[in-house]
Amino acid sequence: MIAPSILNADNMHLSRDIKAAIESGITRFHIDIMDGHFVPNLSYGPELVKDFKRSFPLTEAEIHLMSNNLDTTLPLFVEAGCDILEFHYEATDKPEYWLKYLKDQNVRRGMAINPSTPVEEIKPFLKDLDQVLLMTVKPGFGGQKFEEKSVERLVELKNLIKSEGLNLPIEVDGGINHETFKLARNAGATILVAGSYIFKNGSIEDQVMKLKKEDK
Predict the structure, then answer these.
(1) What is the DSSP code (8-state) at residue 9?
(2) What is the C-alpha to C-alpha distance for residues 5 and 42, in angstroms, rounded to an integer?
(3) Within 13 Å of residue 84, how many CA atoms lie on the same side as its CB?
(4) Residue 57 contacts by C-beta under 8 Å, 6 or more apart in sequence?
(5) What span, in angstroms and rounded, lies between the C-alpha atoms of 200 and 10?
(6) Exposed/middle/buried for 195, CB within 10 Å: 0-12, 13-18, 19+?
(7) Could you give the percent of the chain with pLDDT greater than 70?
(8) What does the longest C-alpha to C-alpha distance in the chain come to?
(9) N or C: which end of the chain has fewer CB within 10 A?
(10) pTM here?
């Protein structure tokens, strides 16, 4: 699955860019929420998610929550109507609480890990997740280069999930283009986030189709 990150879309024409991707067959969008504290950047608030779900009710809103103030931020995006929410393992000392909270709210649960976090760290939580997000760049900014060590980490994560008798989707985020898409796909990624590649290179439809050719 391809999940475009709207972070790199044209903010003055966000609806236009989203529609172009949907018309190319996209069914899920990755929405990066950055609080200026957990990562050194700011992005969207819950009102954008409400508007997104009102305008595109049949399209999934996947929230990548880059915040370490979950008590305040996480419920806001649940209330806004997100379909999937991924919070960072590194951002909280009570992940079990938030996983139960999301389950009780009927929101699919994801956990993200930074490139510097050992994959083994999330083993205790795998049984309670609907997907895992493995960052392939340091979170906070779009347009970064895919970190080569991510391929080994993907294989490790895939094997860890298999060893637990699970079949969780693995998502990757950061530096995805038609070349790194194939690398990540072959290493075990099943959901691939692409931002700059889709929204900053001319025709959105053409860029989506280039990735779809690799998603087989």
Answers:
(1) S
(2) 15
(3) 24
(4) none
(5) 9
(6) buried
(7) 98
(8) 46
(9) C
(10) 0.95
CA angle centred on 175, ends 18 and 148, rounded to 5°: 155
Average pLDDT, stretch 181-203?
A: 94
Q: How far apart are the first and last CA of the chain?
A: 10
Question: pLDDT tens, 82-138?
Answer: 999 999 999 999 999 999 999 999 999 999 999 999 999 999 999 999 999 999 998
Q: Which amino acids are annotated catalytic? A: 32, 173
Contact 112, 133 (CB under 8 A): yes
Q: How far apart are CA 48 and CA 54, in angstroms?
A: 10
CA distance 112 to 135: 7
Question: What is the SS3 assignment for 83?
Answer: coil
Whole-angstrom distance, CA of residue 44 vs CA of residue 33 = 6
Q: What is the SS3 assignment for 174?
A: coil
Q: Which residues pair with 132 in a beta bridge?
A: 111, 170
Are the beta carbons of 80 and 53 closer than 8 angstroms? yes
Residue 70, phi-psi category: left (phi > 0), alpha (psi -120 to 50), beta (remainder) = alpha
